[in-house]
UniProtKB/TrEMBL annotation:
Residues annotated as catalytic: E140
UniProt-recorded name of the protein: Peptide deformylase
Keyword Cell wall biogenesis/degradation: no
Catalytic class of the enzyme: hydrolase
Lineage: Bacteria, Pseudomonadati, Bacteroidota, Cytophagia, Cytophagales
Cofactor(s) for this UniProt protein: Fe(2+)
Length: 185
């Protein structure tokens, strides 16, 4: 099932998400639906708040990013994740977001991280990631804390984006995937 992706301006995108309950029976199906929604929108990551579910879940597929020198990437679901450490040199990379279409900006993030999480079968993991995979994880993890990549943009560039962000929240954007707009008239 393909979910509509919430657009910038929706209050759920600003809430801190809750842990996903272990006794829920629909986790595997939810993860499959999140992948289907992400691929339908040509994304490399999708967090549950972006589809209107305020739970600490995200999926990524960094294998699509295609930089041979960075390795092959991963396809993985992260349930109730906790970033334990972020380290290494900060580096800039142009990020975008399915909830904020047609907006991109260079964002500085540490190059490596260690994260603890469960997969969709409730198997626990603690792993280190780096490069583009770490970046995708950091971006999606931010969604679980109500943080958007545009929050890292400062000064004049932020002011220049203001009108574009308002237009997105009103549904004045040309996209090829289903979205839900908070202020659509």
């Amino acid at each position: 099932m393909i979910y509509p992706i919430l657009a910038y301006g929706d209050n759920i995108l600003r809430k801190e998400a809750e842990d996903y309950p272990r006794d829920s029976e629909d986790l595997t199906q939810l993860v499959e639906n999140m992948y289907e929604t992400m691929y339908n929108a040509n994304g490399v990551g999708l967090a549950a708040p972006q589809i209107g579910l305020s739970y600490r879940i995200f999926v990524i597929d960094s294998t699509q990013m295609g930089d041979e020198e960075e390795g092959t990437g991963i396809k993985r679901a992260f349930i109730n994740p906790e970033i334990l450490d972020e380290y290494g040199n900060e580096w800039a990379f142009e990020e975008g977001c399915l909830s904020i279409p047609d907006v991109h900006a260079d964002i500085l993030r540490p190059e490596k991280l260690t994260i603890r999480y469960f997969d969709e079968l409730w198997t626990p993991h603690e792993e280190e990631f780096d490069s583009l995979t770490a970046r995708v994880i950091q971006h999606e993890y931010d969604h679980l804390d109500g943080v958007l990549f545009t929050d890292y943009i400062k000064g004049l560039k932020k002011q220049m984006l203001r009108a574009k962000l308002v237009n997105i929240s009103k549904g004045n954007v040309d996209i090829k995937y289903r979205m839900k707009f908070p202020l659509k008239k």
